[in-house]
């Protein structure tokens, strides 16, 4: 192979790595991915019966992730922290690496009381950025190990330090994401009714449109235009009008199902995306809403239309609007024919 050909091959290998190489080269920003990679590495480099990352909360130690098949201890198992070897390791009264736990009296007593056989232990803390204990990286084996196991302490320090750094970055990113979501919810919440506003409705539609098209999911769009809001405002004042809107919003919120999307679209108009609802189920939803509104002294005109892949949510909203205005015109025409 010539020098240029070899260089080209090397460049191709670097720019187009295989799946396993590509995964290894990706930066680790999430704590769970970092835990998986660290435990997989430890299982290869220091092959104990089981390696685990744990979370310590109050007096409980939760197994977040486990690698190894020597014990039947799946992730999610919780145990009393004060009875664990990690507890005395954190306190500094026992060593972080014990090739033979029988040589450490406290470990020996805990091993004798343990439901599984433990004859070798390795542990190190994971701390958050403010120095608080988050949990531990720990390893166990049913058989005593060579004294050379103690030589792994620098590696253990390095890996637990890396996990602590990733943990701190992930916690900070999560906090920032939650703050952003809170700000977005505030920006997308109608101040008067507490419902989603038109901006939030439009964002949901934009996000869900592709998913609905991809899977052909079922949904119906329902719109409601309240009657008499202008009359209430003109006769009783805007405070009464606001109360009228809030009453309507509370009734609708009590009627819709858990997964439905309810929004005030503006003025006296409300919208519902009945997720997963057939046309019959949407009609039943409208009937329940009409009765509940009437019981609360609120009236309005409804329209509903099914979501279709062809028309999408915008088409369903337009069709529901047309159906609503048709009902409103019919009601007005009926009222105009009513004898005085």
Map the helices and strands.
Blueprint: H1 3-15, H2 19-25, H3 31-45, E1 50-57, E2 60-67, E3 78-80, H4 85-91, E4 97-98, H5 105-113, E5 120-127, E6 133-141, H6 153-187, H7 198-215, E7 219-226, H8 229-236, H9 238-255, E8 261-266, E9 269-275, H10 279-295, E10 300-306, H11 312-337
Antiparallel strand pairs: 1-2, 1-6, 2-3, 4-5, 5-6, 7-9, 7-10, 8-9
InterPro entries: Diguanylate_Cyclase, GAF, GAF-like_dom_sf, GGDEF_dom, Nucleotide_cyclase, Rev_trsase/Diguanyl_cyclase
Organism: Pseudonocardia lutea
Enzyme class: transferase
Question: What does this entry look like structurally?
Answer:
- The protein is α+β, with helices and mostly antiparallel strands and 340 residues long.
- The chain has two domains: 18-170, 2-Layer Sandwich (Beta-Lactamase), CATH 3.30.450; 198-333, Reverse transcriptase/Diguanylate cyclase domain (Alpha-Beta Plaits).
- Helix content is 51%, strand content 19%.
- The chain has eleven helices and ten strands.
- It has helices spanning 3-15, 19-25, 31-45, 85-91, 105-113, 153-187, 198-215, 229-236, 238-255, 279-295, 312-337; strands at residues 50-57, 60-67, 78-80, 97-98, 120-127, 133-141, 219-226, 261-266, 269-275, 300-306.
- The strands form two sheets. Strands 3-2-1-6-5-4 form a six-stranded antiparallel sheet, with helices on both faces. A four-stranded antiparallel sheet has the order 8-9-7-10, with helices on both faces.
- Strand 8 (261-266) and strand 9 (269-275) form a beta hairpin.
- Helix 3 (31-45) packs antiparallel against helix 6 (153-187), helix 8 (229-236) packs antiparallel against helix 9 and helix 9 (238-255) crosses helix 10 (279-295).
- It is elongated, with a radius of gyration of 31 Å.
- The model is unreliable at 1-26 (pLDDT under 50).
- This is Diguanylate cyclase.
- Residues 217-340 form the GGDEF domain.
- Keywords: Nucleotidyltransferase, Transferase.
- It comes from Pseudonocardia lutea.
- GO terms for molecular function: diguanylate cyclase activity.
């Amino acid at each position: 192979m010539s020098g240029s050909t070899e260089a080209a091959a090397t460049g191709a290998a670097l720019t187009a790595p295989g799946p396993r190489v590509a995964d290894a080269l990706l930066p680790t920003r999430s704590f769970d991915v970092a835990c998986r990679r660290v435990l997989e590495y430890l299982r290869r480099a220091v092959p104990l019966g089981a390696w685990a990352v744990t979370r310590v909360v109050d007096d409980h130690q939760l197994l977040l992730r486990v690698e190894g098949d020597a014990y039947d201890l799946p992730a999610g198992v919780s145990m009393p922290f004060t009875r664990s070897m990690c507890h005395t390791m954190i306190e500094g009264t026992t060593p972080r690496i014990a090739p033979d736990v029988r040589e450490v009296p406290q470990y020996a007593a805990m091993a004798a009381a343990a439901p599984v056989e433990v004859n070798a232990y390795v542990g190190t803390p994971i701390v958050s950025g403010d120095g608080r204990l988050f949990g531990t990286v720990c390893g166990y084996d049913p058989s005593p190990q060579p004294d050379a196991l103690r030589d792994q302490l620098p590696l253990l320090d390095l890996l637990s330090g890396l996990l602590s750094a990733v943990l701190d970055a992930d916690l900070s990113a999560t906090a920032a994401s939650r703050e952003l979501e809170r700000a977005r919810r505030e920006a997308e919440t109608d101040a008067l009714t507490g419902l989603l506003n038109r901006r939030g409705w439009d964002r949901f539609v934009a996000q869900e449109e592709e998913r609905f098209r991809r899977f052909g999911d079922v949904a119906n769009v329902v719109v409601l235009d309240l009657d008499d809001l202008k009359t209430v405002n003109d006769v009783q004042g805007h405070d009464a009008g606001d109360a009228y809107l809030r009453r309507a919003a509370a009734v609708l919120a009590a009627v819709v199902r858990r997964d439905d999307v309810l929004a005030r679209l503006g003025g006296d108009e409300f919208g519902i995306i009945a997720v997963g609802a057939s046309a019959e189920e949407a009609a039943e939803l409208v009937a329940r809403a009409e009765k509940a509104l009437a019981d609360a002294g609120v009236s309005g005109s409804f329209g509903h239309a099914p979501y279709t892949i062809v028309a999408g949510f915008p088409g369903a909203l337009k069709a529901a609007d047309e159906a609503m205005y048709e009902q409103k015109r019919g009601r007005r025409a009926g009222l105009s024919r009513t004898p005085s």
